[in-house]
Amino acid sequence: MSIKHAAIVGAGVAGLTSALALAARGISSDIIEQAPQLGEVGAGLQLSPNATRVLDALGVLSELERHWLEPAAISLISGMDLRPLASVPAGDFARKRWGQPYGVLHRSTLQQALLRAVLNQPLCRLHLGHRVQGIGAEALAAITARKADLVVGADGAWSVARDAIAGSPTVSFSGNIAWRFTINQAVAPSFLSRTGVAAYLGPKAHLVSYPLKEIDGFNLVAIAAGTKSDESWAIDADAARRAMLLEQFSGWHRDIRTVLAGAEKPTFWPLYQASEGNWHNGRDTVLIGDAAHAMMPFSAQGAAMAIEDAYSLAMHMAKAPLPSALAAFSSERKARAARVKARGDFNRFAYHARGPFRIGRDIVLSLRPPERLAADLDWLYGHRMDG
Fold first, then answer.
1. Quick check: 381 and 49 in contact, CB under 8 A?
2. Please, are residues 127 and 143 in contact by the beta-carbon 8 Å criterion?
3. Alpha carbons 187 and 189: distance in angstroms, whole number
4. pLDDT tens across 62-73, in order?
5. What is the DSSP pairing of strand 84-89 with strand 217-225?
6. What distance in Å separates the CA atoms of residue 242 and residue 204, rounded to the nearest whole number?
7. CA pair distance 90, 48, nearest whole angstrom
8. Helix %, strand %, coil % of the chain (to 5)
9. Measuring CA to CA, which residue among 155, 193, 150, 210 is closest to residue 7?
10. Residue 225 CB-half CA count within 13 A
């Protein structure tokens, strides 16, 4: 074991998972979070088998399974005429093919499950309501009263931990916006699948929908080109932003436009992505999750990559001296994140295709059986980490 104690900046999915993964290796941690309490954040979340495999190893999965829904399939549908284009089976198929389930749930369900596990873990201590001003071990020790061998920056796209790493990634606006909202089951239109994840595709935009068991309703995310207003993840969508949304989905099927026009309390999320850069300083500080590699949500892997990062980091910390462990972690995870990002870039092109490209996409998808589409995801959903 290269370290005995870590300070983790941020108590989101990345930070809490990191604390549990380190504790599983006998490494204690202090988790420092600026929020005074961990309340509900975001809305729906997809957890693919590569993520649930880690959560199972950390003893969290069984609690999630009591609250989530396992979609029967992930389907691609034309947003112009609601014509099915392709489908990847999930449900029991996912458990058999990739060895773990695929689930959809409210983000707060995951965060609360991780939080309870952390609070019940003697090796983990949580410090709420502390805004980090300096990332050095001494500055953090002023909060935790313990000096850390390792500082883990798990503080998201607007990470302050990056300031401690020369040549670290920078974030920039992607040019795309996500509008997020939910619909109650009682008033949801019939075209929304009650049993699966559906991605409705159209020119320069797409809409994702899936049921959320916890709210007896549906999570919807509409993604299209747009302009940012400030460096914020979630902003209440005012009249101007609602108009922007409807403009991006002009020409879509009337039932979809009706849903978008009637959305209650939608939030407007400018989407940011991270550049290449250093994830660690070679000595005592490392980045994970969005702090290291914020990416577009076109492969629904944001939370999964943070969860994988956390497990991989703990695995390397238990194997090698700290400098070597940091280098090995960075090398492994950068390659993995780059491949996931490339898949997301491909999906972005395919989902938002126009003109002849859209026609060609539809033909290709119609010719590929579900099993072939599933096989294309083996490298992603079947991913395993040794140790």
1. yes
2. yes
3. 6
4. 999 999 999 999
5. unpaired
6. 17
7. 10
8. 40, 25, 35
9. 150
10. 8
Q: How far is CA 22 from the centre of its chain?
A: 20
Contacts of 267 (CB under 8 A, 6+ apart): 179, 180, 181, 234, 235, 236, 237
- Beta carbons within 10 angstroms of residue 342's beta carbon: 11
DSSP per residue, 217-236: EEEEEEEEE----SS-S-EE
Is residue 243 within a helix (H) or strand (E), and if so which, with residue range? Answer: helix 239-248
pLDDT tens-digit profile of 208-254? 999 999 999 999 999 998 776 555 556 666 778 788 888 999 999 99
Residue with tokens 């974030």: 171
Q: 171-184 and 217-225 as β-strands: parallel, antiparallel, unpaired?
A: antiparallel
Q: Are 132 and 34 in contact (CB under 8 A)?
A: yes
pTM: 0.95
40: Cβ–Cβ under 8 A, 6 or more apart, which residues?
A: 106, 107, 108
Task: List the beta strands (DSSP E) in the chain.
Answer: 5-9, 28-33, 44-47, 73-78, 84-89, 103-106, 124-128, 150-153, 171-184, 197-202, 205-212, 217-225, 235-236, 267-274, 285-287
Residue ranges of domains in the chain: 5-71+100-170+275-352
Q: Let me know if domain 5-71+100-170+275-352 sits in CATH 3.50.50.60.
A: yes
Question: Contact at 8 Å (CB) between 226 and 244?
Answer: yes
Instruction: Please state, in angstroms and rounded to a whole number, the distance separating the CA atoms of residues 261 and 49.
Output: 34
